[in-house]
Write a structure and sequence with these properties.
alpha/beta; Rossmann fold; six-stranded mixed β-sheet; globular
């Protein structure tokens, strides 16, 4: 599945570092869609005229269902990336955290759709070996969830309540505020 672009591409004449925000997940699998919800809210906040953010911002916001190689391809040409995803971790459901990609265990695939795919870390290493211009900085914003296998477009209450905090962390990362 191709990612859904929810913001116009960056202009090539931008002098500011370019940033991509990617909401990962499946929006019809309940809490697994939290990355999309956060990305959509970030896009909305960045587009608000009353925000006072400098315009135009060199930020692209996308939603994706695939990780590994497909995600790596989406990151080509950007200076930094912020990836928002649901994580089934040993933390209370709804806990929001931000970590550098290097802190994530290498076996984590970030929504690999197939056993033939690879982790994002391996995909980035391969892309760099092939000469692709990939972000030097990749930050993950995670929302702790339980495994979700039920079809639903709704988030559970604890995960839905975490969306504003995750949005604020992403905005802080974009503008280099305190995030962790």
């Amino acid at each position: 599945m191709l990612p859904e672009t929810i913001s116009p591409p960056l202009s090539s004449d931008s002098t500011l570092p370019s940033i991509i925000v990617v909401g990962l997940g499946n929006p019809i699998l309940g809490d697994d869609g939290v990355g999309w919800k956060v990305a959509e809210e970030v896009k909305s906040r960045l587009e608000e005229k009353s925000t006072g953010f400098p315009q135009p911002l060199p930020v692209e916001v996308e939603c994706c269902s695939l990780g590994g190689l497909s995600l790596m391809e989406q990151l080509i040409g950007f200076d930094s990336a912020i990836i928002v995803d649901a994580f089934a971790v040993d933390r209370p459901v709804g806990t929001v955290f931000a970590i550098d990609l290097e802190e994530l265990p290498i076996h984590s695939s970030l929504h690999a759709a197939s056993a033939h795919d690879t982790s994002l870390q391996n995909a980035l290493a391969m892309g760099r070996t092939m000469g692709a211009r990939l972000p030097k900085e990749v930050t993950l914003v995670g929302v702790a969830t339980e495994q979700q296998y039920e079809f639903s477009e709704e988030l559970t209450p604890n995960v839905a309540a975490a969306v504003p905090q995750a949005v604020q962390i992403v905005l802080n990362l974009i503008f280099r505020g305190d995030t962790k």
